[in-house]
Structure formats: C-alpha cells, structure tokens
C-alpha cells in the first residue's frame, strides 16, 4: 500500500534514484515478482526529457493513433484463436 505522499508522486520523482522501487512493500507472489523485475528492466533505460511535452502513443498502430481495430487487437494479444468463432 502506498502512503498518500507516494501516491501523489510524479513519474520523474519516482524514477529519481529508483524511489519507486522502495515504494513497493508487503509480500509479493511469484507472478508479481516477475512483473516487478520486468518493469524494473524497462524503466531503467528510460531517460526523461523535462523540456519536451508529454504525449501518449499507442504501439498497436503504425502512426500511434487509437482505432477500434487496434484496441481489439490489443485485447486479444496472446489468445488462442477458436476455430469456427467467426460463425458465432
């Protein structure tokens, strides 16, 4: 559980000196530890540029914009197709 000050911390503050790592407390399941380590690896390489404006990009489309098709594709990423499902 995060304290009130931790829950209001911005990304820049959390990434500074790895503060976000110390915010995680309590016992974690094996799956949560695996997720934690993957996130740790991903954010270690992040370099913030304070002079640049934030923007949200979707990786499910070539140009980074939202489409219903891309949302459906993301939702079903990793699923196994069911033969004959298109008939339903």
Would you write up a description of this structure?
The protein has helices spanning about 5, 10-15, 20-25, 30-45, 70-75. By secondary structure, the protein is an all-alpha fold. The chain has one domain (about 5-80). The mean pLDDT is about 80.
Structural class: mainly alpha
For the CA atoms, what is the radius of gyration? 18 Å
What is the subunit organization of this protein? single chain
Calculate the terminal CA-CA distance, rounded to whole Å. Answer: 43 Å
Q: Which H/E pattern describes the elements?
A: HHHHH
Helix content: 40-55%
Task: Please give the largest β-sheet.
Answer: none
Notable features of this structure?
88 residues, mainly alpha, 5 helices, 0% strand
Produce the secondary structure layout:
Layout: H1 4-7, H2 11-15, H3 19-23, H4 30-44, H5 68-75
Short description:
This protein has 88 residues and is mainly alpha-helical.
């Amino acid at each position: 559980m995060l304290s009130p000050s931790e829950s209001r911390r911005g990304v820049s503050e959390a990434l500074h000196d790895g503060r976000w790592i110390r915010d995680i407390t309590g016992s974690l399941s094996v799956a949560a530890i695996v997720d934690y380590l993957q996130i740790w690896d991903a954010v270690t390489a992040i370099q913030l540029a304070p002079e640049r404006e934030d923007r949200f990009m979707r990786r499910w489309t070539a140009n980074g914009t939202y489409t219903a098709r891309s949302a459906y594709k993301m939702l079903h990423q990793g699923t196994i197709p069911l033969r004959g499902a298109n008939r339903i």
